[in-house]
Amino acid sequence: MEINGHIVDELLDEISQRLDFSAVAADLERMNVAREKLNYLQQQYVMQQIFTGKRQPSSATVSFLNLNKKLQSLQDNSSEESSFEEEGVEEIEETVCNELQDDAWLGFFKGFKILSEDEELCLSENKQCIDISDYDAKPLECLLRAGVRCFMFDLFKGTGFENQKNILRLRESELSISRESGFPVMATLFGVLSPRLQFTGVLEPADAVIPLEKGHALTLTYKREYSIHSSATMVFVNARFLIDDCKVNDFILIGPTIQVKIEAIRNCELHCKVMEPGLLRSRLPVRFPGRCNRISVSLEELEDITFAREVGVQVLISHTPGNRQYFEELSKTLSLLNCENVRLGTRIVINEVKEEDEDDLDWIAESYDVFLFELGMTQRPDECRDREIHDVSTDILELSAGVVNFIKKVYDKKKPIILNASLIAERRLFVHPSCLNEIFFYPDRYLFRSGDTENSFYFLFLQNAYFKQLTSIQLSMKPFCDTSHVGSDTLARSCAAAAENHNAQAFVVYSVVPDMSINISHFRPPAPIIYVTSIKSTSDYISMYHNIILLYFPSRDTEISHFERIYRSLLYGLAYLKCRRIVSKDKKVMLVYSSEEDTKFPDRYTIFKFPATNFAEKLEGSLKC
User: Fold this and answer.
1) DSSP letter (8 states) at residue 285
2) Where is each Pyruvate kinase barrel domain found (predicted)?
3) How many CB atoms lie within 10 A of CB 301?
4) What is the pLDDT of residues 145-180, one digit of tens each?
5) Tens of pLDDT along 235-278?
6) Is the dihedral angle over the CA atoms 501, 502, 503, 506 positive or is it negative?
7) HEC string of 484-552?
């Protein structure tokens, strides 16, 4: 019996891909184990240096240095470069030389650090969320070193293997920066699900516009390797379930003008011919024949949810909020796939919400946990048809009253808001004065993609200028209504106000649960909020909130007193601030903690003036007062 060569090639490709999946999954697992060991040894090492000031290597120091060598070999083995050992030795020698140079130069320029040529300048790093879908490892390390702790990836783009490699690069970069700084580095990563409706894939380049003439032949495929490599002849469409119901001579609509007719169906690919010409762009809507079965959940969504579960991503963003039935079906799917703990968010184009859809905004604000707001350019179909590549229009950004109330409601509910402000950064949208709060104050983070450095600088400078004015106005607004059950909102507001009055450089919050950090973040203080906790899973979502930095403090001592646990945790946070040069002599830090062991929520805050030396003893005295 003869076997089709095409089928054999597909089987070999699938087997190879599965093997690659397993190899990357094993690397991720080893990376997680190594991070856990490194975090614990780092904590021991820091505490030893604070309390004893020993210069002789202790057992903890030796273990710490040995683990660093093992982690270096682990990263070298997972790399795809050829000469592993030689590069590892050169990297270690270069790192040692750079450290010696830094120490020498810091003697001449106190408080400054000389950056290497490839070091990336980062502005308002704690307000940024970076899309890593097409990032390489080097910029990721620069961003993490600068302080960026929130990242996103689009599951519509690329194959599962490519996304898995991107996540591995991020975790490797976290581990590398953690080894350099001596403190754990943990970033929040969330994914955007593929849309349930059908869209074309991303062209090469992404902003390409390809004219399709009548009679042109093209193929529609569901294979994800074409999702970021679509062309005039091969176009990806997320329509795996719909392709089976298509027939020869059916018509399919692409975008506002293009119509194609199915000439043949082979290997689950639709070979078509253009009947009505038009311009092909990335992510155009696709309309299949009415007979095709519209199921509740698409295959692409199931694949995305399963992938997120396997790689440990605990926040997923739906492409559209849909209706109540859509939300219930998506929630049921998560439950069936054992993803009940996943935080489900949604994406909304806020300046394109129609008046008839504003009635749904109330239940959307109640149901979803995270919100990704995007901005669109409202254009008529004839404008889209005739637009040239170099024709860039501008417009004034205005929001309807219903959308303004919706954003304010989401903000009041303390749910993270991430805004994709690329159109503002590109100077294609200019914000109307009536919606400054909705653009420059309420969002926790701002989403930027690769190659947007110049535009992001413009927007972040603009946002920083407005933010300083809006923060003082919002904080002084009266009356204030405490909606919490234990008065935590009042405590957080008092803490934020005291920090502004005393010009505090940072907050250090120790708590079992992150609620107080989120409450303080709600009032948008400009100072970073260092949340010290022993709950590692909090890193899955906490860095989506404004200015919160997770500092993982693993504690294996179960017999120490409540005061000792608070003291060590806050001390670890202060050591982090000093190491990162966030605070210096005579600068003030807000310490937030719980005074009683049975209290889950912090109920006390104090202003700590950072001394030049012996800050451990000064901290103990402050806590006992």
Assistant:
1) B
2) 137-317
3) 22
4) 888 899 999 999 988 888 888 888 888 888 888 888
5) 999 988 888 889 999 999 999 999 999 999 988 899 999 999 99
6) negative
7) CCCCHHHHHHHHHHHHHHCCCCEEEEECCCCHHHHHHHHCCCCCCEEEEECCHHHHHCHHHCCCEEEEE
Q: Decide: 503 and 588 in contact? Cβ < 8 Å.
A: yes
Place of tokens 């507001």: 493
354 Cβ neighbours under 8 A, 6+ residues apart: none
Structure tokens at 445: 């983070």
CA distances from 84 to 72, 167, 441, 617 (A): 10, 22, 47, 46
- Tell me the domains of the chain and their CATH numbers: 209-287 (2.40.33.10), 488-624 (3.40.1380.20)
Per-residue pLDDT of 322-371, as tens digits, reads 889 889 989 999 999 888 889 999 999 999 888 777 788 999 999 999 99
Q: What count of other Cβ atoms lies within 10 Å of the Cβ of residue 159?
A: 18
Q: CA 88, CA 544: separation in Å to the nearest integer?
A: 34
State how far the Cα of 266 lies from the Cα of 282, in Å rounded to an integer: 24
Whether the bond into 443 is cis, omega within 30 of 0? no
Distance CA 556, CA 546 (A): 30
CA angle 152, 154, 159 (to 5 degrees): 125
Here the tokens at position 79 are: 């790399």
- What pairs with residue 429 in β-bridges? 395
Query: Nearest to residue 206, comparing CAs of 175, 182, 185, 227?
Result: 227
Give CA–CA dist 395/430, Å, rounded: 6
CB atoms within 10 A of CB 476: 10
Distance CA 530, CA 510 (A): 9
Q: How far apart, in Å, are the Cα atoms of 5 and each of 12, 164, 210, 264, 364? A: 11, 29, 33, 20, 50
Query: What is the phi-psi region of residue 414: left when phi exceeds 0, alpha when psi lies from -120 to 50, beta otherwise?
Result: left
Helices marked H in 274-352: 299-311, 324-336
pLDDT tens-digit readout, 83-124: 443 444 444 444 444 444 444 444 445 555 555 544 445 566
| Structure tokens belonging to residue 620 | 């103990």
